[in-house]
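Protein: Regulatory protein TetR
Species: Streptomyces iranensis
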Amino acid sequence: MLLPMSTAHPARRRDGAATREAILAAAVVEFTEHGYAGAGVRQIAERAGVTAMMINRYFGSKEGLFAQAVDRAFAPPTVVGDERTGLAGAIAHTLAERTASGAERLDPFLLLLRSAPDPEAADIVRQGVETHVGARLAGLLDGSDADLRAQLALALVAGTWLLRSVVGTTPLVTADDGRLAALLADMLEPVIHEAGGTSVPGTGLDGTDG
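Structure follows.
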């Protein structure tokens, strides 16, 4: 007996959504582990339990899949939350905790590190950073140059993560998390709260042209 159309169609949509989700989840893992160049469509398909043709069907190409994976990786809050109050301190404490020994790794930063050097992936990674975490942070900042200040704050975040979690420089690895968070907060405060316009001694740089 034929099933009513109202029953059959939702089942197919659910199967399609589940397949797409499985592919996307597998892609995030593969791109994080191996970078854009090192992650293969066949490996992603195997991890997702589908064929390579299914990836092309749902995402069009490896580049299209990577763009969706970057969106997936950077969309959820990791270090930058959604609260304006105590923003510098919140970022600093979260960063110190998430880069401590034994902490859950920050996969979006790994994806960025391993994929950004590839010319085909660099623009997608840049858009992901700017669209998600950059825009989220800039939206929490008052005053002028919010986008620039947000990117400066993210540069401090990314640099701290790189040296503490990947390179493993001794002073950062052995630092007390509370002390590290306090120092990071002090560095972030002028950027978060726009303490700009100060000249840099000996350089003539005062934030103005000429």
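Remarks: The chain has ten helices and no strands.
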